[in-house]
Amino acid sequence: MRALVLLVCLSVVCLAQRPQPCSSPWLMTGSLSVSTQNEKLAAFAKYTYDALGQRIRLREFGSYNNKTFHLDVLLLYKQGVMYKISYRNHTCCKKPLNREFHPLAIPKNASLLGQAVLGSSSGPGQGVLVNTWTGQLQMKNKTAQYMNTVTEFGCVPVTTLFHTSKNGWMVTSFFNNVIGLADPQQLIPPSFCKDAELEKKEGEDPATFYSLF
Predict the structure, then answer these.
(1) In this structure, are residues 78 and 54 in contact, taking their beta carbons and an 8 Å threshold?
(2) CB 25 within 8 A of CB 153
(3) What does pTM read for this prediction?
(4) How far apart are the C-alpha atoms of 149 and 184, rounded to whole Å?
(5) Of 202, 203, 198, residue with least CA distance to 76
């Protein structure tokens, strides 16, 4: 009987020590970089992320097909709209955002690829313990592969690899992450966006998070 109890206790301890799928902080601010396997895109952005209100702000610059661009967008998933904002011209382009909000999280059915230390494990504060997960996501009429790396403590995103038929592997790296909203006003449309009308050209696909890159 004691042996059985001991076996159960050991099993529970082992299960508790094994990394589990997790959700990233609901409110975050930071920076990210995006690049694609076909080398058509390279971009850097500052982001503000609100999983509670399902809102994302991206202010980015980069190069696509050897042409530079600047983009400032506010994604409001609950309202189903995206604002493309220009402070220089005080103009706002309002487009449909017909896509479900997917919070930054490791899916429950993800498979643990491995655990590693970024930096060094030789001394305190010299490294960060991270977990890498892999799996597949069901998209519209297709399945997409992904590989996510997050911190063991806090589930803060580090890198995300996402495969698309258009660009191949898309790599997103997160850095300078801060838990919380540094400036909540970033998630509110500017006053000059108040009278913006919803635009959608005939045959144009609604804007989605990944179509922005």
Answers:
(1) yes
(2) no
(3) 0.84
(4) 27
(5) 198
Place of tokens 């069901």: 138
> Taking Cα atoms as reference points, which of 34, 66, 38, 21 lies closest to residue 209?
34
CB 45 within 8 A of CB 158: no
Residue 212: Cβ within 10 Å count:
17
Rounded Cα gap, residues 99 and 54, in angstroms: 11
Distances from the Cα of 146 to the Cαs of 67, 139, 150, in angstroms? 28, 12, 13
Three-state secondary structure call for residue 126: coil
Q: What is the mean pLDDT of each run of 10 residues along the chain (213 residues)?
A: 41 61 97 89 94 96 89 95 92 90 93 96 92 87 88 97 83 96 96 88 51 48
The answer to whether residues 118 and 128 touch, using CB atoms and an 8 Å cutoff, is yes
**Contact call for residues 73 and 85 (beta carbons, < 8 A):** yes
State the Rg of the chain over Cα: 20
**Close Cβ partners of 13 (under 8 Å, ≥ 6 residues apart):** none
